[in-house]
Amino acid sequence: MCAKLSLASDQKMSTTQQNTTIIQLAALREKPARPKRIAKRLVTDRLLGTIVPVAGVIAWELLSRSGAFPPNALPAPSVIGQTIFDLGRSGELWQHAAITLWRIAVGFFLGAAVGTLLGGLTGYVSLAHKLLDPLLQSLRNIPSMAWVPLFLLWMGIQETSKIALISLGAFFPVYLNLSSGMSHVDPKLIEVGKVYRLTAFQMVRRVILPAALPEYIVGLRSGLSLAWMFVVAAEIMGASRGLGFLMIDGQMTGRASIILASVILFAGLGKATDLLLETVGRRLLRYKAQ
Amino acid sequence: MSSVEIRNSSLEVQGVSKTFGSNGGGLLALEDINLHIAPGEFTCVVGGSGCGKTTLLRIIAGLERSYGGTVMLGRNRVLGPGLDRGIVFQEHRLLPWLTVQENVGFGISDLASGERSACVSQYIDLVGLRGFERSYPHQLSGGMAQRVAVARALVSRPQLLLLDEPFGALDALTRIRMQQELLRIWEAQRTTMILVTHDIDEAIYLADRIVIMSSRPGTIKRVVRVDLPRPRDRAGFQLTELRRSIYREFFTNEDVPEDYEI
Q: Distance between CA atoms of A20 and B184, rounded to whole angstroms?
């Protein structure tokens, strides 16, 4: 179909030939300048941000060693580090971390999957939105911990109730963000899809989903952070393994260093998983880069 | 492929009217529009805001479903959007997550990938954007983005290219450059073009025929044929005369700027 075109453009433009060259040169000149120093400034900003925390840890260490803090209530950072190291060497740490990560993975996956399904449905079909959204919005108002007794009653204190609670936490942000992202796609872009006669399915795949992707990724990330909150709750309420159990164990046996070690591990693992999602998201949204 | 045959069909707008709103309280946007556009012709529709010129274009594009009268492209009645009509909007409306070449190829995804990329690169060349195939829309200037939009509209080889104030959002110098470029594309492709604008100078620089519309309800007030060779001298005597006469359609005599220059 394009053979004709080359014919047409070969015998082209007797009149505006000079214009053409000017225009093409102009097009090249129009390229906007790219900021180059941003990366460097980011590094400096990061360094600035570490000064206060590092100074705080050093002060904490010094004050603990001088005996200003009671060691059984607030052990020194070096003691906490030693505790983590010992836990790691005995293999206890990996057991607890692994079971916690497994719960996060399964719970987050289930919650995000249901959230994606319902979010996609309500975001695209307005009837589904009218039917389902008010109910889901009101369920969202129930404080998460209020579900605990019910889940325990229904599903026992084994894994099922924990996974259910974590899924519940991950579900809402994913649902809300995807639903709103899909229903707020710029109608002007939808119209472009109509001009090219996209079918409903093509419209979703080629216009609506890509347009909603940034919000969806935000939803996934907040879902994941809620999943971490809920795993702590689930493991505190009754578990024999997991980092939450380690915390309770530390509390029962009066070892503050174990509790603080678990807190740090939660923080580190939570950040690591979020970084994973962030990296995937940044790759998918690289068209927005800069 | 019988593309030559298809490309020879003309556009027939007969008794078209359009009312927005309903139940008697509606606003009559267009009333009894009749227009015959020959194949290969470059028509500009000029009018103030609210005269229904964009609505007319959207009806021809098939984006307005309910209207009175008929629009025929060749033997086919226009009942919805179709690849036989390309459209360029005032905003570029590129999909921000697609590169330039992906945006240009958006409407021809049915083609085999080899043929598609050949077409895409030909049209990217046509609008002077070689080297920017992998750029994303946010990396382009307004003029470049609008070039991509023109390439996207042309790549499916439409019989008719509809342009809805395509350069309205660009600065004055870029606009002139884009007008020259559009003319070059038209001369190379001989696609029938209908360009809607409120810029009289744009119309007299580009058009074979200028359709002047009046407001509330939108009707065709006058059709001016511009039988001047291209490229036209924007400050030349004939264009100045023409501009003066078109200004009179919109303003009273004393409002006409005597020495209007771009």
A: 7
Residues of chain A with pLDDT under 50: 1, 3-33
Structure ipTM? 0.86
Cα(B56)–Cα(B45) distance, rounded to whole angstroms? Answer: 9
Distance separating alpha carbons of residues A39 and A165, to the nearest angstrom = 40
**8 Å CB contact between B126 and B86:** no
Q: B230 and A188: CB-CB below 8 Å?
A: no
> What's the pLDDT tens digit per position in A153-194?
999 888 899 999 999 999 999 999 999 999 999 999 999 999
Whose tokens are 């009066």? That residue is A254
Edge-first strand listing for the sheet containing B11-20? B27-37, B11-20, B68-73, B76-77
d(CA A212, CA A288): 13
Q: Where are the beta strands (DSSP E) in chain B?
A: 11-20, 27-37, 42-46, 68-73, 76-77, 85-88, 160-164, 192-197, 209-214, 219-225
Cβ neighbours of B177 in A, within 8 Å: 22-23, 26
- Pairing between β-strand B209-214 and β-strand B219-225 as defined by DSSP bridges: antiparallel
Residue ranges per structural domain of chain A: 103-288
Q: What integer pLDDT is reported at residue B42 of this predicted model? A: 93
Q: Residue type for A128, please?
A: A
Amino acid identity, residue A73?
A
How close are the terminal C-alpha atoms of chain A, in Å?
Answer: 38
Q: In whole angstroms, what is the distance from residue A249 CA to residue A93 CA?
A: 13
CATH 1.10.3720.10 for the A103-288 domain, yes or no: yes
Contact A191 B63 (CB under 8 A): yes
Cis peptide before B166 (omega within 30 of 0): no
Q: What is the pLDDT averaged over residues B35-58?
A: 90
Q: A23, B95: Cβ pair inside 8 Å?
A: no
Distance CA A193, CA A191 (A): 5
Scanning the structure block, which residue is given the tokens 């990560």?
A101
* Helical packing angle, B172-189 and A3-10, nearest 10°: 110
Query: Which pTM does this prediction carry?
Result: 0.81
Phi (first) and psi of residue B221, to 5 degrees: -90, -40
Pairwise CB contact (< 8 Å): B81 & A23: no
Residue A12 has its nearest CB partner, among B4, B83, B187, at B187
Beta pairing partners, B160: B85, B192
Torsion angle of C-alpha atoms B219, B195, B86, B133, degrees rounded to 10: -150
**Separation between Cα atoms, residue A96 and residue A88, nearest integer Å:** 10
Asked if B189 has any chain A CB less than 8 Å from its own CB, the reply is yes
Q: Please name the residue of chain A whose CA is at the shortest distance from the CA of residue B83.
A: A196
Three-state DSSP class for A199?
coil
How far is residue B30's CA from residue B14's CA, in Å, rounded to a whole number? 12
Q: Helix, strand, coil: what percent of chain B each, to 5?
A: 35, 25, 40
Residue pair B78/B71 in contact by the 8 Å Cβ criterion: yes
Q: Is B196 left (phi over 0), alpha (psi -120 to 50) or beta?
A: beta
Q: Do A23 and B181 touch (CB under 8 A)?
A: yes
How many angstroms separate the CA atoms of B120 and B156, rounded?
A: 10
**B93 reaches A (C-beta below 8 A):** yes
